[in-house]
TrEMBL record:
Gene3D superfamilies: 3.30.230.10, GHMP kinase, C-terminal domain. This is diphosphomevalonate decarboxylase. The lineage of its organism: Bacteria, Bacillati, Bacillota, Bacilli, Bacillales. NCBIfam families: mevDPdecarb. GO terms for molecular function: ATP binding; diphosphomevalonate decarboxylase activity. Residues 7-161 form the Diphosphomevalonate decarboxylase-like N-terminal domain. Residues 175-301 form the Mvd1 C-terminal domain. Its EC number is 4.1.1.33.
Amino acid sequence: MRATAIAHTNVALIKYWGKRDEHLILPANSSLSFTVDKFYTKTTVEWDKNSAQDTFILNGEQKTDAKVARFIDKMREEFGITSKAIITSENHVPTAAGLASSASAFAALALAGSSAAGRDDTKEYISRLARFGSGSASRSVFGDFVIWEKGQQPDGNDSFAIPFTNKLCDKMSLVVAVVSDKEKKVSSRDGMRLTVETSPFFEKWVSAAETDLEEMKKAILNEDFIKVGEITERNGMKMHATTLGAEPPFTYFQPQSLEIMDAVRELRENGIPAYFTMDAGPNVKVICERENENIVAEKLSGLAKNVLICHAGKEASVISDEK
Ligand code: DP6
């Protein structure tokens, strides 16, 4: 039994930053993201009774990856199977540079794994399962705007993503300014753990993120791009502020990231509504209205290694299934 699935990566406009349960990957706060069309992972899973071990091939190279190994065990436990997995994955995302390759990777893996096991799981189930690979992967199961509800239950059964699609998705562009495509120094997992354990700003972050999310939902429902942009920018900055309070302090900002932020502010001063956000890496993601995407891309092109214009991406899907 073999199946192939595709999932797109997502960029959080309201960040997930900090876990309340490390083992179950339960977030301290709910988050909201925009799924993007340009970056995705395509993964084939085959459950093979005759293999003696799991195999994971990423972009043509055989890999050993502790997170993937744990996730395969999780799938076997969930699906009640004992077969070994043969996984072939193509990552169309600059790996580990703050572009959330793990989000699309685990969403595609969960969907392909379930389908290859002959199951017809709901997207809600796939989202909950993908969460065990990487929290942000729960959101990559859906397209457009997506909310990952933090949930209340200690077992995490109510912690999964739901679509929050709105017409505004089709009017919005996300311009990625790639500052570096090198592996990040502090992974999001380690960065958020250190923040939770040591930053005095963490508690404040959690309550601010909940307030930002409520305002963001209203702004999206009102199709108010400016408000969406303002909330996105301030939420991202609050998340990054927590890292400066950690012990030892750390930051994902690089000189070029700060220059790009300045350029975005300059665009606004010149009447172009554009707003930035950053994740656990130095790249800057800028949201703007579609009619301004080329102006924004041009402005940032001199400051970044590469500039890519993205639009709303679709939900994860199974593209082939052989029983
Ligand atoms: C800054 O989902 O990569 O991109 O759950 O530990 O695997 P783990 O973390 P991950 O964290 C993403 C953090 C972020 C913000 C976001 O995407 O919400």
